[in-house]
Design brief:
The protein has about 400 residues and is α/β, with parallel strands linked by helices. The protein is about 45% helix and about 15% strand.
């Protein structure tokens, strides 16, 4: 027999994130004809509005898919079998994109890291300068590595490509950063930006995005990968009249329209500042507990999540179970090389100060119940910081 649990479940994984009531209500509208005029108006609003979120004047293609499908679309529309790609092993998701590229017959120079640092722009520049034959056709990086809590410096990687004078395409995964931290597709001259719905956009899973530059469009007209469902040209042709070549996720598009409204009502800069504030509060709590943050460089700290290393001899999954069983809160598990070594605190999306403090209180109580050696006072440190920030904002 299922036991009733009072209060809400705390979903504090780094995505899918909590879906706010406004978006749930929008999604709950009756489904409409996806070939009719009401849908056409909806589609126009989300396709144009999405450009403002990506900060681009160019097209944004919306697929009914997860971020994995958006990865695939980025590769298949721009490259050809046997092409060489430069990628960086910043964590589990960068590794998955690499494995996908290999499956399609791409030759990948996969730069290893210790999973505690982001992409090194100097290595990118050096690799491209050494590529005298210009065999590297694209540089693909993950902006915010969800498995590690490390944020790579997209603008500096763009500068590295320019310093090398190399014509490679530039592709960036913003699956967990879009709508949560500053990102500028057009200003940073990104050719393909990959995104999805279930993180900073606060939607359920089901929408994948490709923001596309003119250079990427030119590549898509000349490359030789066979594709059908993922074909940009079919999508863009239908999008000219704000329709789609196949059935779209109509109700999720209602939700996307509401998400764009919410982000712009708060103001994107304020959204980014809120996430940065929550990231700093969380890190102060972690340090006060005497635990170690996986990301080692302060300039690469993620505003989306914090990955916390467990003390030697203690498993992260056991702690997560204690917290789930006692406080009905889900934390992110360790993935790949850091499986059972870290737990991840998501602080993104529909979150306010009290939600964050509740999250950190659940972690601190869980550390106590789980027998994990720590120093009490992490929640207090986070509260002190948030209170001071509020005071400074009013001054």
């Amino acid at each position: 027999m299922t036991t009733f649990k009072s209060g809400r479940h705390f979903l504090q994984i780094p995505g899918p994130s909590n879906v706010p009531d406004r978006i749930l209500h929008a999604i709950g509208r009756p489904t409409i004809d996806h070939r009719g005029p009401e849908f056409q108006k909806l589609s126009e609003e989300v396709l144009i509005g999405s450009r403002r979120i990506f900060k681009t004047s160019g097209p944004v293609v919306v697929f009914p898919t997860s971020g994995t499908g958006a990865w695939e679309a980025a590769l298949l529309n721009t490259l050809s079998p046997g092409d060489k790609v430069l990628m960086c092993e910043t964590g589990h998701f960068a590794t998955l994109w690499y494995k996908m590229a290999r499956k399609f017959g791409l030759q990948v120079d996969f730069v290893p890291t210790d999973w505690r640092h982001g992409v090194d722009p100097q290595i990118v520049e050096d690799k491209l300068k050494a590529d005298s034959g210009q065999r590297i056709k694209s540089v693909n990086i993950v902006h915010n590595e969800t498995s590690t809590g490390v944020l790579s410096r997209v603008a500096e990687v763009r500068q590295a490509i320019d310093n090398a004078g190399h014509p490679a395409l530039f592709m960036v995964d913003t699956i967990s950063s879009l709508g949560s931290t500053d990102y500028r597709h057009e200003e940073w001259q990104v050719d393909v930006t990959v995104g999805c719905s279930q993180k900073g956009l606060m939607l359920p899973p089901g929408l994948g995005f490709n923001a596309i530059s003119e250079k990427a469009l030119e590549a898509s007209r000349a490359n030789t990968f066979v594709r059908h469902f993922w074909d940009w040209n079919d999508m863009l042709h239908a999008n000219e009249n704000f329709f789609y070549p196949s059935t779209p996720c109509t109700n999720l598009l209602f939700g996307l329209r509401e998400s764009i409204k919410m982000l712009e009502e708060e103001g994107l800069d304020k959204v980014f500042a809120r996430h940065a504030r929550f990231g700093e509060a969380t890190r102060r709590a972690v340090r006060s507990w005497g635990l170690e943050i996986l990301c080692q460089e302060s300039f690469e700290y993620s505003p989306v999540l914090t990955a916390v290393l467990m003390p030697q001899g203690k498993g992260a999954d056991a702690l997560r179970k204690v917290i789930l069983d006692n406080f009905d809160m889900s934390l992110g598990n360790g993935l790949g090389k850091v499986a059972d070594k870290v737990f991840r605190i998501g602080h993104l999306g529909d979150l306010n100060d009290l939600s964050l403090i509740g999250t950190l209180a659940g972690v601190e109580m869980g550390l106590e119940l789980g027998g994990v050696e720590h120093t009490k006072g992490g929640v207090a440190a986070a509260m002190d910081y948030l209170s001071a920030e509020r005071g400074a904002a009013k001054a």
